[in-house]
Amino acid sequence: MASGTLTINGTTHTNPSGCYNVDSNSAEITYDIDSEITVYSERDGKGNSVSRVSGGQGTINTSPAGSVVVS
After folding, report:
1. CA-to-CA distance for 26 and 14, rounded, in angstroms?
2. Tens-place pLDDT, residues 25-71
3. What's the structural domain count of the chain?
4. How many whole angstroms separate alpha carbon 17 and alpha carbon 61?
5. How far apart are CA 45 and CA 66, in angstroms?
């Protein structure tokens, strides 16, 4: 479990962990956490890795986006 917040298309998750499926083909992801975030092209953490950050603070805008995994 990460400490902090992860916001995906307006929905905020506090102390996120695991996989979050994206309900649209693109995503705006705002993060302030201490763990790695990986965005995958398909749901359930499958497909190609399309973006990865090692934590910290920032915003990612990406398409395609099927899921976001917090490690």
Report:
1. 21
2. 899 999 999 999 999 999 999 999 999 999 999 999 999 999 999 99
3. 1
4. 20
5. 8
The DSSP symbol for 48 reads -
Domain that residue 66 falls in: 4-70
CA distance 61 to 25: 11
Kindly provide the residue ranges of all beta strands, DSSP E only, lying in 1-71, ordered along the sequence: 4-8, 11-14, 18-21, 27-33, 37-40, 49-53, 56-62, 67-70
Cis, bond preceding 16 (omega within 30 deg of 0): no
First-to-last C-alpha distance (Å) of the chain: 8
The pLDDT score that the predictor gives to residue 11 is: 97
